[in-house]
Amino acid sequence: MAEYDVVCEDxxxxxxxxxxxxxxxxxxxxxxxxxFLGPSGCGKSTVLxxxxxxxxxxxxxxxxxGQKVNDFSPGERDTSLMFQSFALFPHKTVNDNIGFGLKMRxxxxxxxxxRVEKMLDVVGLxxxxxxxxxxxxxxxxxxVALARxxxxxxxxxxxxxxxxxxxxxxxxxxxxxxxxxxxxxxITFIHVTHNxxxxxxxxxxxxxxxxxxxxxxxxxxxxYVRPATFFVASFVGxxxxxxxxxDSVDNKIISLKTKVGTFQIETDRKIPGENEEVGFSIRxxxxxxxxxxxxxxxxxxxIVEFIEYVGYxxxxxxxxxxGDEIIIKETQDKxxxxxxxxxxxVKLGWAADExxxxxxxxxxxxxxxxxx
Length: 372
Description:
The chain is α+β, with helices and mostly antiparallel strands. The chain folds into 2 domains: 4-225, Rossmann fold, CATH 3.40.50.300; 240-370, CATH 2.40.50.100.
């Protein structure tokens, strides 16, 4: 296991009768940026704290660079944990905050100062060392917390919602800086968040969790384009998700009967068995409003309820007769060719080969949580 920076084997964490993490298995290569995504209470921060040693493990094992660390204290593990709150000492200077970990390790004062100055340069705060945290902006405080976590040169940096307290524009700016810094340093980062954009833009691989289990592990493109379960399809992106029963199968084309209609799905995935939960998802950017005699493999009708202008993209929310909502994403150029208005009755559709077949034991759970 020495070739991996982090390995979790059958990791379980219980709080009394509550199973917070269930049989978690994962291997992380050196220098990877891993992002954990999921709703509050899904177990992602619990896994992070088990790796850091702040949570005892109920069963299973954690290995850091090939060494089993179940019985190691947080200080004995080659990790640093950066919290959402930053947890800076308000009465200490930036220099003292960043150098605190080295001071606790009884590093010589001159060496501490040398490494603090180097770290200030890395995070772009060269002239801020003598200030107190209260004199800094939120983004600058985030960089101080990051510098303090990095200065001990950990093998793995653990980030628990590190951008959670920042405004949206600053989050966007700093997530780019954080990713660039990780590439520059070559340190393994594990980043926990419930923010989908953060995960999709920063992680080399994503781990999507729900109710203590891993729903899917993959690249951002894997997760976004080919969700593996009902939960992932419902949670990531603006997908239209339906469950139903197979009406017929013709080669790779499945005819699926749902409460809102019968749909065609072309798939290269294994055709589900008779008793399997089955459904499909279609991304909002692959659903099109149809004009005139336009036709697609799958068609629906509905009423435009709301139109949102989100930068270059227009999000059109359409309410179906069944009460379900479907979101359509169009570029502004395309939208203004044939603009829809609220309360318009519209036809919409998508191609059979653009829908994703969904199967598996979590179909009902995803449906119950997200009402789709």
